Amino acid sequence: MSQSPSRMLDRWMSAGMLAPALLLVGVLVLIPSVLAVVGSFYEFGITSQNWVFVGLSNYARAMADPVFWTALKNNIFLIIGSIITQVGLGTLFAALLDRGVRRGNTFYRTIIFMPVIISSIAVAFVWILIFDPNVGPLNAVIKGIGLTPPRLGWLGDPNISLYMLLVIAAWQNVGFQMVLVLAGLQAIPKELYEAAALDGAKGWRAFVHITLPGIRNVLMVGTLICIIGGLKVFDLVFVTTGGGPANATQVIGSYTYLQAFTLGNMGYADALSVILLVVALGFGWLQLTLSRRG
Amino acid sequence: MNGRTRLVAIGMHLILTVWTIFVLAPIGLMLISAFKSQAEIFTKPLSLPGSLNLSAFQRAWNIGIGSFMLNSLLVTVLSVAVIITTSGLAAYVLARSEAKVMKWLYILIIASFAIPVQSVLVPLYQMVSGGHMLNSQLGIVLPYAAFGIPFTTVLFYAFFLEFPRELEEAARLDGCSRLQIFFRIVVPLSGPVVASAAIFQAVFNWNEFLLALMMLTEKSVRTLPVGIYGLTTQYSSDWPAIMAALTIATLPLLILFILAQRHFVRSLAGLGK
User: Fold this and answer.
1) Which of A129, A218, B194, B218 could serve as B135's disulfide partner, Cβ 3.0–4.6 Å?
2) Residues 114-173 of B with CB under 8 A from A
């Protein structure tokens, strides 16, 4: 059966419309991720062309590398910590703006959202100044009220530096979670609350039976954003602590960069990125199945 | 209003006000420090500058903030343009075609959305350097575009699925081709979703650091984030100049945001749906 010329033309046109996007994604996202898997079985340097096949030994090296485990642990710490602080505070502020306060909503929303659009590099440097042991205002305040600041510095003490990163991340991202939840809250029809009030469900019960189910999806999206953000975190760590002190704040992103571009272990860096890729795809798959069910 | 509800209202305002002050304090510190002298930074960390000292801005400008800014602008505009155009075309075909192949291509796009840029650092660097595109605008625009396309395509795809098809059918009967329908009917009615995607990608690429750090090692091609990073390794104790540079880099976007905050917030909040 032959097709009409206009249908043939349509087909070619469709292919032409798809091609640029597919080409870019294929060449610069999909092929590199396959190449990362291939490279993880080799040992090679930044400039050297000598690829030595080493099998799975890059992965074995990761399993035996305490810094890898610290980095992975830090990623997980940042994920859980940012879900608690960012989704938690974001939801609280959104609830206050939606039903609580009647004045100044736009003002609060605008200010709290502001840090979202500031580059994480700028954010990092301002906070380095805040935490600086010599010229930082935080220490000046702490000393002013008669307390002693941490001897090794806020970012230099391995026991607290990771918490400080969490504070900076919350400062920057709570606004995003807030507007996300706010949009979810505003999409709940007001009639639902009125009907529930007639049935005697108010306050806490209305919150549990109407509000929570209504924002369940946005909370899931917000949590997923924290997970992805926590897996991909790089800028903040790289600029504020560089993964130090003594690798205490290293994350997979910064450790991969260190191995690849500072130490020149490209094969090992590939193995680290493949591990990250598997974890990321796992979460992507989880989200897909959860959202299908919901 | 009885006493208890008033107390609750005050409590709620208090919570929001505390966080608002917490958000504003670092931004205020950045602005104030930019006007201080280097001596004032060290001796009076908590006080306002003694005089409106603009020399830090001059030092920051002389280091090349202007050219970093132009580079950022160029890279951002180009990558957003490529992302919006290619994603729009692809998403439209994917949303209108019933062929099995298209479903698979769409799944491939979703899968690539889950691939973080950290997972391809080494191969991407080698491809770009192998193509002699390190330290070139194109060498950074193309990866930015490639990593922006999957998300934007998914966003557009959802929008096109709900787009009324009657208009398109009518145009088809009038003899319009698929490409003509796309540009004459669909594009003019897609303003809000295009604005959403463009704002999101613009903020993201304006601030992108990791790829720029890898690929833009020469000072003349650096974008703002890497430019500022390089500056601080060079002038590590000149806090006023660093804060002035951050102010110059941040203020345009902040002003734009305050003027158009309704669009920003709506666009980013809409992405959660």
Assistant:
1) B218
2) 114-127, 142-143, 145-147, 149-150, 153
